[in-house]
Amino acid sequence: MSDRSRLGKGLGAIFGEDVTSMLEEIQKGNDKSFPKEEIDLSIIHPNPYQPRLHFDPEKIDELAQSIAQHGVFTPVLLRKAVSGYQLIAGERRVRAARIAKLATIPAIIMDFSEEEMMEISLIENIQREDLNIIEEADAYGLLIDRMGLTQEQLAQKVGKSREHVTNILRLRKLPQSVQEMVRDKKLTMGHVRPLITLEEDAEIEEIAKRIVRENLSVRAVEQLIKERNQPKKPEVEKIKKDYRYVTDLLQAKIQSKVKVEEGKIVIAFSDDEDLNRILETLGCLEEEN
Q1: Burial class (CB in 10 A: 0-12, 13-18, 19+), 154
Q2: What is the pLDDT of residue 30?
Q3: Distance CA 137, CA 172 (A)
Q4: Dihedrals φ, ψ of 260, to 5°?
Q5: Three-class SS string for the chain?
Q6: How far apart are CA 64 and CA 56, in angstroms?
Q7: pTM value?
Q8: Whole-angstrom Cα Rg for the chain
Q9: pLDDT digit string (tens) for 150-179?
Q10: CB neighbours of 6 closer than 8 A, spacing ≥ 6?
Q11: Digit-coded pLDDT (tens) for 12-31
Q12: What are the pLDDT tens digits along the chain (289 aa)?
């Protein structure tokens, strides 16, 4: 069965396969049923479902220099829009081609519905594994919301483990400021995974800033959160139960304040006369002849 016939039946027919490889084969021109044509760059619109929000300017400039010298070898994938075309795959090439001041770019026009375009864009980017973890989390969330998938179904469609999908989705609960630190590569997945266990956004932000400020290792962060999550131990009674019994017994006998601690007994007295009274009560005074 050709790629065109499979794609024409909807993406349900290709889920479970390597979408990235399939699209690359089409762009390489290995399937003549997808002809290449030159499309004016000015009528190509961004992909509204592009999960990748951050592109390295230096790498785009390097690609632009290469394109200026050698042209674009691999066509981009487009979808017809109400006006012009929407980009499906190849945003780096489009950006670089514009910097190189090209007028047109080689492209293959795909007959995708709106839903198919979204699915292809998200799954293809996820399979490439070049998204940062926050972009990946947002892509997972969009697939679940728009397609009504369970986490187990999503894991199967994107070729990831259920545990991986669950852990990544939990990152969406982080405060936006902390998510930005991850996008800016100030924090790693290892750093922020323990932060999810905390309930207060202010506490999460405070620790995130501390991680960056003190350049804490992942192990140090895990230990820090472990200590914070441990329930506080109740204060140990200074006088144990058996000591309290002894304390009450002594105080009743000598009619004075008594403090019993580990290894010692402290008896309070007000003056010499009171001290003699206590000694006499305890039978410590010798009788005079």
Answers
A1: buried
A2: 64
A3: 6
A4: -105, 120
A5: CCHHHHHHCCHHHCCCCCHHHHHHHHHCCCCCCCCEEEEEHHHEECCCCCCCCCCCHHHHHHHHHHHHHHCCCCCEEEEECCCCEEEEECHHHHHHHHHCCCCEEEEEEECCCHHHHHHHHHHHHHHHCCCCHHHHHHHHHHHHHHHCCCHHHHHHHHCCCHHHHHHHHHHHHCCHHHHHHHHCCCCCHHHHCHHHHCCCHHHHHHHHHHHHHHCCCHHHHHHHHHHHHCCCCCCCCCCCHHHHHHHHHHHHHHCCCEEEECCEEEECCCCHHHHHHHHHHCCCCCCCC
A6: 12
A7: 0.58
A8: 36
A9: 889 888 877 788 888 898 898 888 999 999
A10: 13, 14
A11: 444 345 666 667 777 776 66
A12: 344 444 434 444 443 456 666 677 777 766 667 788 899 999 999 888 777 777 888 989 999 999 999 999 889 989 898 899 999 888 889 999 999 999 999 999 988 887 778 777 777 777 666 678 888 888 888 888 888 888 898 888 777 888 888 988 988 889 999 999 988 889 988 898 889 888 889 999 999 999 999 999 999 998 888 888 777 666 555 545 567 878 888 888 888 888 888 778 888 888 888 888 888 888 777 665 5
Task: Provide the token pair at 260.
Answer: 């019993």
Question: In angstroms, how far apart are the furthest CA atoms of the chain?
Answer: 129
User: Alpha carbon of 96 to those of 42, 45, 125: distances in Å?
Assistant: 13, 15, 19
The residue behind tokens 């490889």 is: 21
For residue 192, give both structure tokens: 């922020």
Query: 28 is written with which tokens?
Result: 């390489």
| CB 192 within 8 Å of CB 174 | yes
> At residue 110, what are phi and psi to the nearest 5 degrees?
-105, 145
Catalytic residues: 91
